[in-house]
């Protein structure tokens, strides 16, 4: 998590630096009014937008990571769902069992993979 926080902090620093550069370029455009400094200003504004988008994505990643710490995503599939139902669904819709169960789970549920066909009814 600290690595992600470091990335967020670095992105915030880059945004602050970019804003400072934009302010300086605006002053330059007002005084010189040439096309070159106007182009620089436009490119810096685009860069600022990209940096803000990247910061937003990083913040979303941090939020998702924090929220997913409390959830065991595979628990209900393993403990509460009959593997024959999952295998039958996979066979019915043409989804590989590898997409649902990892190797150790496939070895554990080999009996269900052999037993269930696409018409299995629980």
Outline of the structure:
The chain has 122 residues and is mainly α. It contains 7 helices and no strands.
Overview of the molecule:
The chain is 80% helix and 0% strand. α1 (2-32) runs antiparallel to α2 (35-68). 6% of the residues are buried. It is elongated, with a radius of gyration of 27 Å. The mean pLDDT is 87. With 122 residues, it is mostly helical.
Record the SSE blueprint.
Layout lengths: L1 H31 L2 H34 L6 H5 L3 H11 L3 H4 L2 H6 L1 H6 L7
Q: How many beta-strand runs?
A: 0
- Poorly predicted segments: none
What structural class do you assign from the helix and strand content? mainly alpha
* Proportion of helical residues: over 70%
Number of helices: 7
Hey, roughly how much beta strand do the residues contain?
Answer: under 5%
Rg of Cα set: 27 Å
Feature tags:
mainly alpha; 122 residues; 7 helices
């Amino acid at each position: 998590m600290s690595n992600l926080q470091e990335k967020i902090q670095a992105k915030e620093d880059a945004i602050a630096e970019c804003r400072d550069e934009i302010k300086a370029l605006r002053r330059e455009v007002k005084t010189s009014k040439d096309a070159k400094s106007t182009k620089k200003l436009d490119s810096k504004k685009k860069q600022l937008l990209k940096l803000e988008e990247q910061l937003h994505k990083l913040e979303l990643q941090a939020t998702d990571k924090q929220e997913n710490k409390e959830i065991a995503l595979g628990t209900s599939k393993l403990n509460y769902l009959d593997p024959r139902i999952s295998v039958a669904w996979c066979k019915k819709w043409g989804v590989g069992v590898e997409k649902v169960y990892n190797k150790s789970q496939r070895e554990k549920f080999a009996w269900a993979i052999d037993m269930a066909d696409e018409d299995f009814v629980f």
